[in-house]
Structure formats: C-alpha cells, structure tokens
Amino acid sequence: MKRFQYSLQRVMDYRAMQEEQRRMELFRAQQRLYRAQRELEELEEEYRRVLLGINKPGGQALTAHFLRQREKYLEYQGSRIEAQQEKVAEARQDVQACLNRVQEAQAELKKLDRHREKRLAEWEQERRKNDVAKMDEFNMNTLSRPSE
User: Fold this and answer.
1) What are the pLDDT digits (tens) for 40-86?
2) How many folded domains does the chain comprise?
3) Would you say the C-alpha torsion 87, 89, 93, 99 has a positive or negative sign?
4) Phi and psi (nearest 5°) for 59?
5) What's the pLDDT at 60?
6) Closest by CA position to 104, among listed 24, 25, 19
7) Range of the domain at 46
8) CATH of the domain at 32
9) Is 94 part of any domain?
10) Is-above-0.85 flag for pTM?
11) Residue 121 located in a structural domain
C-alpha cells in the first residue's frame, strides 16, 4: 500500500502561509500601536512640564505676554494630544482587527489539521486491514501447500 498523502495538503500549506502573514501583520500593527503610545506619552509629558512651569525662561520675569504665549502653547499641545489619542485608538482597533484575522486563520488551519488527522486514521485503519488480509492469504497459502 502506498504511503499516506493528504489530498488537501496544498490548501493546508496555503492556510499556514496565510496564518504566518496574518501574524506578521499583527506584529506590525502592534509596533505602530507602541510607537503611537510612546508619542502620546511624550506629548503628555511635555504638556505637564509646561503646565507645571518646569520650562521657565532662565531669569525672565513672568509677564502677561509670556503667560499668553504659554496658554496658547498649552492649547496647541492639548490639541496635539487629542489627535494622538485618536491615532492610538485607531492603532488599537487595527491591532484588534489583526488579532481577529490571526484567530480566524488559526481556526481554518485547525479545521484542516483535524480533517487531515481523521483521514490519516482512516488510511491507517485501511492499511491494517490490508496487512491482516495479506497475512491471512500468506498463512492460507502456507497451510494449504502439500508437504513434500
């Protein structure tokens, strides 16, 4: 009997390749999320420094002009933070979508793997039947020969 050959092996290989591609997409999405979060943290830190007055001009008195400029900068920085928060939210959604695609690809591959295992078990059972039949035939031929 010839060796086991799964008829859907090419499909299974293709699904495995798809899963790997989905994992790479997830990895890239996670990297984008990490960079967006880091940028958000940097913007928030800069906002806090300015708000707390850590970046006071060296030796310069706090004038009304300086305070207005500082307020404008804080507003600008606040809008940048909001925009970055939106980018982070989008990146999180992208990561979740990629994760869902990876899970779908894994499920498809798992289905094929279970199907393959079932076909392999059937093939092994058929092989055992053939082996038993050959042994029976051999034994019948051996026992039915006349003694010389």
Assistant:
1) 999 999 999 988 876 555 655 678 888 899 899 999 999 999 999 99
2) 1
3) positive
4) 70, 5
5) 58
6) 19
7) 9-115
8) 1.10.287
9) yes
10) no
11) no
